[in-house]
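cron nightly-structures :: item 1 of 1
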Amino acid sequence: MAGGRCGPQLTALLAAWVAAVAATAGPEQAALPAEQSRVQPMTASNWTLVMEGEWMLKFYAPWCPSCQQTDSEWETFAKNGEMLQISVGKVDVIQEPGLSGRFFVTTLPAFFHAKDGIFRRYRGPGIFEDLQNYILEKKWQSVEPLTGWKSPASLTMSGMAGLFSISGKIWHLHNYFTVTLGIPTWCSYVFFVIATLVFGLFMGLVLVVISECFYVPLPRHLSERSEQNGRSEEAHRAEQLQDAEEEKDDSNEEENKDSLVDDEEEKEDLGDEDEAEEEEEEDNLAAGVDEERSEANDQGPPGEDSVTREEVEPEEAEEGISEKPCPADTEVVEDSLRQRKSQHADKGL
């Protein structure tokens, strides 16, 4: 009986002791507040804070292993932000697709340095020592800044942010259809295709209505006059082209005529020269024949010299015969002259 009574007493004592220990430890644990993160989350509503002062931003995704490995280093870097006089932030690309589009983030994790609205891409490792040296030694000054249309504050990147935000909403809607509602994936794709076609037709209709509202048609008489003026200009251009072609044809014909006249004159000149040469040759031949005839006449009649010829030796007789003109030679000369005349006549034709 005594053992049975001691059991409940011991359990009660143990319970009281545990309650006392819990009571004493509770205030101590409540006095130690949970350590808060020094990394400031950035969203589409507060991202303009990086336009003032010096900032370091990290773009990450919860499912990215490389991003998870650099979380502790990034927290340590943020704790030393006051000493380095720099603010540290982070952007979840899943929750903020617009900011990822504004900074045109294509790889994760991605780090950016901002100094008074001038942005630079940090491509080093996400280790605390490297990040600290990057700020203390001002290595960011040797990095080319994102200027012009590449700047996150530019109008171009603002449009890119809008496109990325729309794509993020579509992705969330797709997950809602397939995960929450349990709709098949192909049904979700068909829905988005039909929605895209309908939206395109609607936007085309809106553009047509806007153009009809702002377009002011011209009166009929003005439109008719403009058409007549256009036709007259076209006719005038056609006439100018025809005149130019006719002038070209006329100039070509004149050039051809001039060339033909020049050729005929050259042929006539050549014919005159040939005729003059022929006349000179004829005169020379006629003079030679006259000389031969005069020499023959000077020798006297054949009766007086008959006695003397008989006395001449045979050799002298042969020499006399060779000196007399041969009628065959004169005929050959005349034939050659005739042939030359005929050739020159053919050339003249």
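cron nightly-structures :: done
Residues 40-148 form a domain with the Glutaredoxin fold (CATH 3.40.30.10).
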